[in-house]
Amino acid sequence: MSEQETILNTSRQREASPDAKDCADAGARLEPVLAGPLAPIRLGDVMVNTPVMLSPMAGVTNWPFRVLCEEYGPDGLYVAEMVTARALVERNPKALRLCRFAPSERIRSLQLYGVNPSIMEQAARFLVDNGMMDHLDLNFGCPVPKVTRRGGGSALPWKTDLFTEIVQRVVAVCEPANIPVTAKIRVGLDHEHETFLEAGRIAQEEGCSAVTLHARTTAEYYGGHSDWCRIGELVSTLDIPVFGNGDIWGAEDAIAMVNETGCAGVAIGRGCQGRPWLFGNIGNAFAGSDVRINPTLGEVGRIIMRHAELLTEFYDGDERMAVHDLRKHVAWYLKGFPVGGSTRRAFMECESLKDVREQVDALDPNIEYPERVVDQPRGRVRFAKKVHLPYGWLDSRTTTHEERERLFGDDPMDASY
Ligand SMILES: Cc1cc2nc3c(=O)[nH]c(=O)nc-3n(C[C@H](O)[C@H](O)[C@H](O)COP(=O)(O)O)c2cc1C
């Protein structure tokens, strides 16, 4: 262990969770059919008619991707990737780019990350004063070591005074402008250090309109299966809506989560990588329809091309940046299709829209969506090697003066997943 930080031993977690989804009474598992259409969620004055959220993903949920998702599911909530509060306060151009929206986006939803209540308040003030959003989510779920070792993301709810102050100060800025604030949390640091029920209660008391629970601990990172029972526990504890999050890969998973936990809505992360149409499928399921979209390779090619064009707009006409950003999406879009290594490599080597067009045109448009990847897991899946925390973090549930000085002197600019 470094002298500068506390490290949690995560080995016990590794054994604990591979099938955590199953609640104690899973024998009573319900069929993936809803009793009726799912009710809209009201976040202050913002109505989320289809209670499904695109969970923020750094490097993924910029406006081009959100636009594609919203085209399939026009009534959900599509949250931008997290923006670092300090970067916003310093008017960092990259951070400002992340706060842009397409004209078609119905609810302009941002997520803020930070550990310093004053900087969080200033960032919220800047966003509110410039009319830059309709909804603000606060990130208390990030498990990445460079974030948690500074007390941020999923490490933060452990310090209840800091958590309370951040929520309080941001809500105080947003409430008068009718901007609903929500909080995104995890179960805790590990199972010996759970924080979600208390964090949920504080968020509710301090004026949050909803809470999203990613039902894993920091130690569990993205490994095993999320523990949906914890979502059910939070639902029974709170009066505000809870968005359940973790391991929804298809519409039937979304229904199962609602049935098993009673959550008011669901949040989708990795499941929509390369599958923006998942929001159409979930919208259909929540409306009681069994229509499901599984596009042919021709349609997927059309989406890839459109994604490339939107990214070019996002990068102010810089095609090279756009097609580089597109690479990870292409890998997800083509997952499971019988497309050879040379074609995949050619996509990775594209430097312009013309290059992408050539590769898209060369795809066989008639190939059906591969059955074996329909509604199957994708994206990162590993456990944390270690949970990194600021030195002495676990000694107390509140911050000392020295801890605050150490934390706030070094607010990271480049916190990212
Ligand atoms: C690449 C990637 C980036 C992420 N970035 C963020 C982020 O910026 N803010 C956040 O709150 N969560 C972030 N997450 C977590 C997701 O929003 C979501 O909570 C998590 O992936 C669990 O949901 P899933 O099982 O549907 O993927 C990220 C996840 C991934 C895989």
TrEMBL record:
Q: Where is the DUS-like FMN-binding domain?
A: 53-361
Q: Which domain of life is it from?
A: Bacteria
One function term, GO molecular function aspect? tRNA dihydrouridine synthase activity
Per its UniProt record, what Pfam families does this chain match? Dus (PF01207)
Compositional bias ranges of the Polar residues kind = 1-11
The cofactor(s) it depends on are: FMN
Q: Where is this region: Disordered?
A: 1-20
Among PROSITE patterns, the record links this protein to:
UPF0034 (PS01136)
Which InterPro entries has this protein been placed in?
Answer: Aldolase_TIM (IPR013785), DUS-like_FMN-bd (IPR035587), DusB-like (IPR004652), tRNA-dHydroUridine_Synthase_C (IPR024036), tRNA_hU_synthase_CS (IPR018517)
Keywords, A to Z, come to:
Flavoprotein, FMN, NADP, Oxidoreductase, tRNA processing
PANTHER family, per database record: TRNA-DIHYDROURIDINE(47) SYNTHASE [NAD(P)(+)]-LIKE (PTHR45846:SF1)
- Protein name per Swiss-Prot or TrEMBL: tRNA-dihydrouridine synthase
Whose protein is this, by species? Bifidobacterium animalis subsp. lactis (Bifidobacterium lactis)
